[in-house]
Design goal:
Helix content: over 70%
Number of domains: 4
Structural class: mainly alpha
Radius of gyration: 22 Å
Oligomer: single chain
Strand content: under 5%
Amino acid sequence: MATDTIGARIKYWRLRRGGMTQTVLAGLAGLSQAYISQVERGRKTIERRATLIGIAAALQVTVADLLDQPGDPTDPIKAGAADTVPAIWAALIEIEEGERRTPNRIGEQLSAEIARTAELRDQANYAAMARELPALLLAAACHDDGGQALAQVGYQTSACLRHLGYRHLARVAAKVALVAAETSEDTAWIGAARFATTQSLPIEAASVASRVASRALVDLQGAAAAPDVRQMLGQLHLSAAFTSAVDGRADDASRHLAEADREASTLGDPIDGAGFNQACFGPTNVKLWEMSIAAELGEYGRVIEVARAIRPDPLRAVIRHQSYWLDLGRALAHSGRNDREALTAFMRAERAAPITFTLNPLAHDSVVAMVHRARDRSMSDDLRILARRVGVDVHA
């Protein structure tokens, strides 16, 4: 598809977003379908920057993507999320300091709002999720249920902040979730909060994260018969496996991966595609983690081998779909001989979760390498557009 006009680029990204219709795009951007149609056909121009920002936000791309101009910093998705982070931080501080507000939501309303943020998490729509979290954290903190609501919202907050690149605050949210889970004496949520802690630690602290996961595994063994707890035990084994691989301990990684696989084989994939706390724990998720661990160990042939045997389709969380396509793309791009297939995989990864793809440094580095190789030949429009998405100036 030609992408030499703003209208053509709008159509390109609309179709890349799962075949989004003009009507849906118009509704999300607050415009009419007829206007979108005329813009895409070149019959009308976009004269107001606010209109361009609205369309970019609806498509989960930057204004720079629509203008095809490097260096434009306008990103309505990431900027909107960043604007909300200070309010999330303030709410976490208020909770840690023990301040308690008057409850302002009844149980059913709070449960519905938690379910809504869980749905946004499934969709990897972390920008929209971030906007809900400040008020939801404070509402959960003053809800009289023994801490279970705050354990859930704290976990969701940690996951959201981590995917937006705020790991230091993700760790604070994980601690809030852990205190609440321990107050409620809910073993499964204690395991979830410990898992969130391991995920929030920086890669430089991989050995610490591995020890945190290992200690949590010991603490949870007493309640290991419960299915929810078993799912979190499996997730903690996966976290320990990955962080062991990062720390250069391949044998420990293999041991934890085998334990996770054993647990998953008796549980099966979650019937609803999510399972407890949307962890997606089961045989499919174990294989996805195996791909990531193999990539971390530089075993790219193994990544491709595992990818040929599975698909992420049974799982509901799109971030797990992105993990599959991202690791496969990295493995295919590694040799430099499969760049066309790698590009297809990266495009699938970007389509699954646009925000996290643009923030992923591993995706950035792989695309940079592909761009450099393409300059010696010819660069496809798809590679040029994807490069712009991760901040690579293809004209340099």
